[in-house]
């Protein structure tokens, strides 16, 4: 899942960005409204964490721009302004939720999960399954054939990306855009490395292979068919 963090307080921005990345999110950070606007024009985001009081362009104006373009991106206002009228203004311009500073990081995570589920119309059950593979988005656990797996955050995020849309072919570029921020991802075989790690854990011990290579296109998670050889 890709997140745009718009926060002009540098120490808080770094703290939240690091915390989200440790949870497996791909995070781009903007320090003002102009940077955020440029990022939104270049990249598709699942969630925007948006401070109201930012330089160049206020969070309210930016939220209006997002909604005016018809983007389905979920918006969480994050601000020190906790008056009722401020919360109402944020919601009226199209924000999906409102979080007041100071906040517990666990609450921010919960709100990000909640708005992303609503914006993408995810199923109510936190457990996603294909064949005998199950992934619990709340407990962050994975199981298959009676075996449980502990996956690092990026591997879990990659598997979640694939299992949410079974049979869909994801290009390496699309996977990279969803899992890595723009500054850290480079044109390399990093996606292939993570796919190999996942296969070793959730496919190699089983006769039915779920992660498939689609020649010249990318990867998909499916209980049907064999790999197309690369």
Keywords:
230 residues; alpha/beta; Rossmann fold; Arc Repressor Mutant, subunit A; 8 helices; 39% helix
Descriptive notes:
The structure is a single chain. The protein is α/β, with parallel strands linked by helices and 230 residues long. The protein has two domains: 2-119, Rossmann fold; 127-221, Orthogonal Bundle (Arc Repressor Mutant, subunit A). It has eight helices and eleven strands. The chain has helices at 10-22, 33-42, 59-68, 84-92, 105-119, 153-164, 172-179, 190-202, and strands at 2-6, 26-30, 47-50, 74-79, 97-100, 127-130, 133-136, 141-144, 147-149, 211-214, 218-221. The strands form three sheets. The protein has a five-stranded parallel β-sheet, sandwiched between helices. β10 (211-214) and β11 form a beta hairpin. α6 (153-164) crosses α8. The longest helix has 15 residues, at 105-119. The protein is elongated, with a radius of gyration of 19 Å. The two termini are 27 Å apart. The mean pLDDT is 85.
Short description:
With 230 residues, the chain is an alpha/beta fold. Helices cover 39% and strands 20% of the residues.
């Amino acid at each position: 899942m890709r997140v745009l963090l718009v926060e002009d307080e540098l120490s808080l921005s770094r703290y939240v960005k690091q915390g989200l990345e440790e949870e497996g999110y791909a995070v781009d950070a903007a320090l003002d409204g102009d940077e955020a606007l440029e990022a939104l024009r270049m990249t598709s985001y699942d969630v925007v964490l948006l401070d109201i009081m930012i330089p160049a362009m206020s969070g309210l104006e930016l939220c209006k721009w997002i909604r005016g373009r018809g983007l389905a991106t979920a918006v969480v206002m994050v601000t020190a302004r906790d008056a009722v009228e401020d919360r109402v203004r944020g919601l009226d311009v199209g924000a999906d939720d409102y979080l007041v500073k100071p906040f517990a990081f666990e609450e921010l995570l919960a709100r990000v999960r909640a708005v992303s589920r609503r914006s993408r119309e995810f199923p109510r059950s936190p457990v996603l399954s294909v064949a005998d593979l199950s992934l619990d988005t709340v407990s962050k656990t994975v199981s298959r054939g009676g075996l449980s797996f502990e996956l690092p955050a990026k591997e879990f995020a990659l598997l979640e990306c694939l299992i949410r849309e079974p049979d869909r072919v994801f290009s390496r570029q699309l996977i990279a855009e969803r899992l890595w921020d723009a500054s850290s991802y480079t044109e390399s075989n990093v996606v292939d490395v993570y796919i190999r790690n996942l296969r070793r854990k959730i496919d190699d011990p089983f006769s039915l292979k779920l992660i498939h290579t689609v020649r010249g296109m990318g990867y998909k998670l499916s209980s049907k068919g064999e790999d197309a050889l690369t």
